[in-house]
UniProtKB/TrEMBL annotation, chain A:
Subcellular location: Membrane
One term under GO cellular component: membrane
Protein name per the record: Phosphatase PAP2 family protein
Domain Phosphatidic acid phosphatase type 2/haloperoxidase: 132-258
Keyword terms, alphabetized: Membrane, Transmembrane, Transmembrane helix
InterPro entries: Aur1/Ipt1 (IPR026841), IPC_Synthase-Related (IPR052185), PAP2/HPO (IPR000326), PAP2/HPO_sf (IPR036938)
Membrane topology: Multi-pass membrane protein
Pfam families assigned: PAP2_3
Residue intervals passing through the bilayer: 6-25, 45-62, 103-124, 136-156, 216-237, 243-261
TrEMBL record, chain B:
Record organism: Natronocalculus amylovorans
GO biological process assignments: peptide transport
Protein name according to UniProt: ABC transporter substrate-binding protein
Pfam family, one: SBP_bac_5
GO molecular function: peptide transmembrane transporter activity
Amino acid sequence: MALLRVIFDIAVVVIVLCLIGSVTLIGPVRLRELQVELRDRAREAAPAVGILLCVLILNALVRDATQELSWLIGWNITPLIRDIEGGFVIFIQSFATPFLTAYFSYIYVFGYVFLLVFPFIAYAALSDQDHLKSLLIAYTLNYGLGLICYIIFIAYGPRNSFDSGEVESLLYTVYPQFQFLTSTVNVNTNVFPSLHTSLSVTAALLAFHSRREYPIWFWLSIILATSVVISTMYLGIHWFLDVIAGTILAVVSVELGRRYVKYGSFRDSSSESQLSWPWS
Amino acid sequence: MTDRPHPSTISRRTLLASGVALGMTATAGCVREARNIAGRDRREQLTLEIKTPPSDNDPFALRIANHVAEHLEAIGIHAQIMPLEIEELYRQVLINHNFDLYVSQFSHPPLADPDVLFPLTHSSFDSEPGWQNPFGYTDLNCDDLLVSQRTTSGADRLETVHELQQYLSRTQPFVPIAFPDTLTAVRNTRFTGWRQTAPTDPMSLLVLSPTDEHDGDSQVRLVITDARITVNQNPIAAEFRQHGLVSGLLYDSLVRYDRSDQIPWLAESITWNEDDEQTSATVTLRENLTWHDDTDLTAADVAFTYEFYADTSLGRTENPLPTARYRGRSSLVTDVHVTGQRTVLIEFSDAVQEVAETALTLPILPEHIWSEKTGGATIGGIEIDTETTEALVWNNPEPVGSGPFEFVSASDGVELIIARNPDHFLQNVSESDPTIPDRFVSAPQYEELSIEPIASDNSALEMIATDDADATLSNVSPDLVPRIGRESDVRLITSRSRSFYHLGFNTRVAPLGNPHFRRAVARVIDKAGLVEDAFSNYAVPIASILADTEWLDPALSWEGEDPTLPFFATDEGELDVDAAREMLRAEGFQYNDEGELTIVGR
């Protein structure tokens, strides 16, 4: 079946990229250490992983129900977004070439998944587990807050608002098989904010905070995240405002995630907080 | 006070503030003047919202909406595109009448009788939900013509229908834009017999047969870009039905049309009595008809159905609550008398036989199921709305009909499966039966039919190319035609659809109630240009929805441009902005200094 083929392709590509990344970016020393301490580290990260998985599963289970709820109580902001930003996406698509379309399509699907998955391995390989915890919490917040936004806001992307002569649905026209995947994991009215943007920026922001440990990954993640962000607009899937909202969501999620790891609370004041990692 | 700024350039709030200041120092006369100025509502730019399905559901409607929006902007009207999934679009437009403008395809009944205009434009349907006068168009002259065409025949009726078309063209309650070609991609390898016209309508699907090499294959797999059919199978719910394909396979009517053949279906014979002012018909049903749950289908079900269409509460409520679909045709029937186990006498309102006949094409519903659904609609047991019956909002999750297919399973957004009904009369009818054409004897010749919703026409074509589906139910965009040509075993079938694209006006909203305004909007739409660009010529522009039939008024036939409301075009074929603005100005509309069309704040 078409969907399984796409998933298989992505799995193969991302596993290969992660293997290459592990060898070149993480290095044998850390990997060996990870191998030894795998069980302990897994146990330490387990609660946060559990929460992330719960949110992901919940997200998948309630997607249809939230969609119905959204049509009932949500605010359809498609015309408003278009009024505010006008033809920005048309402008971006005016640079389209077959090469760029191929590049951004593969970035949107493969590059994005790699950018999100690789940090798990990279941060698990560090003896200090704070980055991994921040990552898990930040991803969880992205999905959780994103889901709330999707209930409040109904918005179609540019490809469903403009004439297809002005904004082309480039990804699905050139690579229709990818739509089997995206339509399975998302709904076409859930574009504000862009979760592609927010999760990519989240990965890049955490790469910034871990730049001492992984300097090359920092630069690589900047390039990947920037490409993913541009691809969402280039492919006609997201508005510029979705990207801005996604970036804000990422900054908030990373900030809160790091605070929680540092102080055991989403509040800033470390001294007042009596909360600590329930599992540490 | 002599050098105060021009009123149109300062805000009402400033004026109010200055009014207060003046009140302290100046005379009552000054305050009076301030009130006189500030009390007037300021004129503001006219903003119109265009509701339309998103590109994923209907690429053409969105392109038309964008064309209209662009040209409205050019003549100083702010136009916003509001994409809405079809279910929501229909709910907002057809049920709640909450819209300014909308662009959509009309769900056309499978017949070409001009009486289709009756429910669409008669004022008595103004407040009814469904494809009944969503425009809120109320016009005495039009009403008279609509009634008159129902009661005359021959040349008189033709003349009335011509007059009616001209009148609608003049007043434009909606702008008919084009008849699209339905572009269907089909796969040849597993099933043959795909028809050249409407390959995926119910009657065409009945005549498919498996190819020799795939004789074991018994499932026709269809894909659609619209998930509504997997969610709701209620044949009378306007917001969930498009062309009624599945309803047409699950439910039978007394008479069916296939191409131009009128086929007695549940009815074995029909005798018409057209005596003094009362048209009536005696209908005899076939023997041994049953519902899918093995209950007998009797004359009582037929009588119930027509009563139910007219009032789904069956007299429980003060006002009748009719169905949201089939209203034009059901309004023709006044009474049905059960005269025997298999015979009914149907009495019609003032209508000649050729019009009355169309009422026999309505799906017959089982009384033992639907008579339970006449109560008020409830959420969690609490009655929410006394003006809505359960029948109108029921999902009908396991439909019981009497059609050639019976329901198997449905899962929201994933799949709908229906299977051959082994007890259907087509399975037992003999080839010598004169009433049933040979092609339908023992049809369908396969076991199952599945419908899977997918994200877009791109994905649909991909499924067919990879042998995961046999045909697309929804339109394929012309952009994909070259790709269909490249795929082996995939064939493109184009057939003219009478489900016309149109721009609907909500005439209940100012200034859309003004026919001069509607005419001006009609004239900024380049129908021929749209057919060329948006439809890549897979459509024909129209000035009347009866184009393509023998009923078309010759004065409204398309001759290179719209015969009555031609596009305001410059020599280069672009929109002639000045001419359009001039027409609006001449009709009393005002523009401000920025060139915006202004109205007093709504």
